[in-house]
Amino acid sequence: MSLFRNASGIRKGFNYQDMVALYYFLDNIKEIKEIKNEGEDDVDIVFNDGSLGFLQAKETKNIDTTLKVGILRKALIALFDDCVAHKNIKLLEIITNSNYPFSKKDISFLQPYGKFIFKDLKANSQQKINKQIENICKSEKKYNKEDFDTDKLAITKISYEGSDDRSKLQELKNIIYEFISDAEISPSYYKRLLHSWSFLFYRNSDEPKNRISKKKFIDYTELTVMDAPDLDEFIRKFDVKAGNIDYIKENYEDYLEKAILDYSLITIVESDFDKFSLKNRDKVEADNIVQFVNEESSIIFEKIGLNNQDDLDIAKIIVWLIVIRRRFLNNIERASINEN
């Protein structure tokens, strides 16, 4: 896959299950090894320590109604099946957009986001869940109440309401901004990342089992960010002449595609930058990058097929992108990986 990939295709936005999968992944990214967005309403988690989590995403069209008994029963049966099939379970969770998942008298879930483990639920909500568990065990002989550990059960409200994605995805937007802040990614990339991740987390009938490892997510995120470099920042930093701006924007991608396939070239540039940074470690990093790019671009100029001095700015942008690519990757990894 090209380092600077052009995303294609159009999605109609997130459904609730896909949104829940991405939200949960970002909110717990340092603890998660892999997430599986698979089956109807099913989101499965593999944590770094090998333990498992099983989520049931239950959307209600009318957020002010309680979850129907059949929906709650279906979610609990799915979690029961997970309990029977697996032993190393860390959590069981039902996630919904309902303001009143169990009772209109319980106002605990009126906020846009709220998570309650079983023992912290109101008594009548606990009773409703316990009653369903008992009914399931009576009607389905393969289930035993002892198999379902309610100490591992949580109910979470994640808001999903409104007539457009801007309204429905407000909570997702908040968690995305938290992540890109931690990863030191410019907020200007929000819409592009949202669009890209919508493809990554999309589950459809053609591919019902969608597995996303942390490495796949990191690679995908890096590709998304680097596919749309901030050319305005480059133009400011390197004092590009006004008459050359349009030429650069129209032509740099052709040379960039060739350069990024030349791994020896990338290795040379990165190695040269490491040596340069070590030699100039007392200087400000931003100044180091500018000085290095100005010097290195003259060295690699002909190696990437350029022979016109008007193309020197294209050589500069290629060197600049190779250098900042590694910084982006380091920042994304730091925001995603638990170093403990």
Topology:
Layout: H1 16-27, E1 32-38, E2 42-47, E3 52-58, H2 69-85, E4 89-96, E5 113-117, H3 123-139, E6 153-158, H4 165-168, H5 170-182, H6 190-200, E7 209-213, H7 214-226, H8 231-237, H9 242-260, H10 263-279, H11 285-300, H12 312-336
Helix pairs in contact: 1-5, 2-3, 6-7, 7-12, 9-12, 10-11, 11-12
Walk me through this protein's architecture:
The protein is of the alpha/beta class and 340 residues long. The protein has 2 domains: 16-210, no CATH class; 231-336, no CATH class. 50% of the residues lie in helices and 13% in strands. The chain has a 7-stranded mixed sheet, with helices on both faces. The two termini are 31 Å apart.
Radius of gyration from CA coordinates: 25 Å
Question: What is the string of helix and strand elements?
Answer: HEEEHEEHEHHHEHHHHHH
Number of domains: 2
Overall SS class: alpha/beta
Quick overview of this protein structure:
This protein is an alpha/beta fold. 50% of the residues lie in helices and 13% in strands. It has twelve helices and seven strands.
